[in-house]
Structure formats: C-alpha cells, structure tokens
Write a structure and sequence with these properties.
230 residues, mainly alpha, 73% helix, globular
Length: 230
Amino acid sequence: VKSEGPKLVPFFKATCVYFVLWLPTSSPSWFSALIKCLPIFCLWVFLLAHGINFLVSHRSASRILAGLIFSAVGDAFLIWQEQGYFIHGLLMFAITHILYSSAFGMKPLDLKAGLLMGVVSSSCYAFLYSYLSGPFTYLVAVYIALIGFMGWRAVAGVQLCNDLWTWTKLSACVGAMLFMVSDLTIALNKFCFPVPYSRFIIMATYYAAQMLIALSAVETRDEEDFRKRS
C-alpha cells in the first residue's frame, strides 16, 4: 500500500480541487466537466504509471482502465443531465460495471454472496419502482442488475473465512459497495425525494469507490498461486 500511495497524490489533489471549487451544477460547462473528471483522469495515469506491459499482461487491470475511461465519459454526460443526457451517462456507467465485473472474474463463484446481492438489488428496485415512469422503469432495472452483479463479483473475491484474500480483493469489494451507495443516492435524489447533502455523499463515495477499484488492479501476490489456493 505504501508503494502505491505516492502514485495517488495527483488523484487526491484533483479530488480536493473538485470539492474546494464546488462549481454549481446549475451552470454546466466544459470547465465543470473537466474539474469533475480530473480525479478519474488521474486514476488513468495511476494505472498507466505501472507500464503498458503491466496492463497488457493483466487483463483485469486493462479492463478496469477501460471502465475508468467510460466512467469519465459518463461523468461528462451527467454534467448536462438536465439537458437530456442523463440516459447517456447511465449507459456509460452500465458499460463500466460490465467491464469491472469482467475484471473481477467469475472465480470463486460464491452463490451465497450472489443471493445476498440479488436480495439487496431487488429490494432497492422494489423501493424505487413506484417512483419510476416511462423508459426509466426498465433502464433502472437493468442498471441495478448490472451494478448488483458487479458488487457480487467484487464481494465473492474476498474469501475471509478461507484466508484466500488479498488487500487488492478487499479494495475491490469496498470500492464496489461505495459505488452502489453513490448510485443509490443518485437514484433516491433524482426519482424519489431530495437527499440532504446528496451531492457531497454521491461524489465522496464515488471518488473513493473509483480509487479503491483502481487500486484493486495492482497485483501484490502471484495470481497463479492465488488460483491454486482457491
């Protein structure tokens, strides 16, 4: 963890810039989009700093980088969500969750974790359903299914009982959970009722989630050895 810390300094600085400037969402602009996306750009640099060979030889890392790229595009679309680009942002983040799920992999399967995430996702959608109308009735259902699946794959990777975990797996798990909190807050605030301090909650959990997921791409143990133990 200590060796990765210095590489994340630009990300922390960019995140501070976002919260210090706190540009109003009522006046969307390319400058606002740049400031919002800057921490994600820094996470691109964080992964690229490990070298192209690292990204090529570790498919999970390259998929997480691709997910971060789609996230930045989604962030830009959401700057203009009141101008009709919310669905575009939703699509970009849906692709992000597919890429992250692929990066986390399907082993170990852990059906119990899958059942738990299924119950959580279904409960969230059941609560939101009465507030949804039009295409959002279906789009939100698909989105929740995708992020729930991503959460399952992240949680399944942490085998605490069997001592088959690494800090990178734990990082992915916590990051996925924070991502779900961020998106649930967005849904509640947009479709249901005003959430106090919603923007702060959404962005703080979002940036933390993306950082932790980016960190999960850094291998600290020989992957082949981990698979054998699994």
